[in-house]
Amino acid sequence: MQKFGGLAAFVVATVGIGIAVGTINLPGEWYAALHKPPFNPPNWIFAPVWSVIYVLIAVAGWRTWERDKRGVGMALWGAQMLLNFIWSPVFFSAHRIDLALAVIVVLLVTIIGFIVVCWRADRAAAVLFLPYAAWVAFATLLNASIWLLN
User: Fold this and answer.
1) Nearest alpha-carbon partner for 25 in 80, 95, 76, 120
2) Which end is more exposed in the chain, N or C (fewer Cβ atoms within 10 Å of the end residue's Cβ)?
3) Is the dihedral of CA 83, 38, 51, 77 positive or negative?
4) CB atoms within 10 A of CB 22
5) Cα distance between residue 12 and residue 27, in whole Å
6) Are 114 and 73 in contact, with CB atoms under 8 Å apart?
7) Rg of the chain over CA atoms, in angstroms?
8) Pair 108, 143: CB distance under 8 Å
9) What is the pTM of this model?
10) What is the pLDDT of residues 83-107, one digit of tens each?
C-alpha cells in the first residue's frame, strides 16, 4: 500500500505543479496577437492534453523512482520536469519565444534521453513517455513556427 502512496504523491505533485504553472502563466492577449501557423491547435486543447500527459509522466517517474532513485533515468526525469515547468514562464510571461525554443529543444532531447535510458530497464516507463515525446515534438515545431512568424 505504501508503494501506491508514492504513486499518488508523484501524480499529485506532477499534475498539481503543472496546473499551477499553467494557471500562473496564461497565454493572454500577447499570445492572441501573435501570428501563428495554420496547424496551431485551439487553446482549449492544451489543458486536457497536458493533464493526461502529466499523469503519464508521473507514473513513469514513480516507476523510475521505485527502480533506481539515484540513477540516470531519475536524473533525466527530474531534468525534464524542470525544463517543462520553465517553458511556460519563459514563453508566456517573459514573452521570449526564442529562449523558449531553446528550452523546448533541450526538453525534447531530455525526454528522448529518458526513453532511451529506460527502454531496457523499464520498458513501461519508456513507453509512457512516447506520447509526451510526440506532443513536445509538435510543441517544438509550433514554438519554432511562432518564432519565425513573429
Assistant:
1) 95
2) N
3) negative
4) 18
5) 24
6) yes
7) 16
8) no
9) 0.94
10) 999 999 999 999 999 999 999 999 9
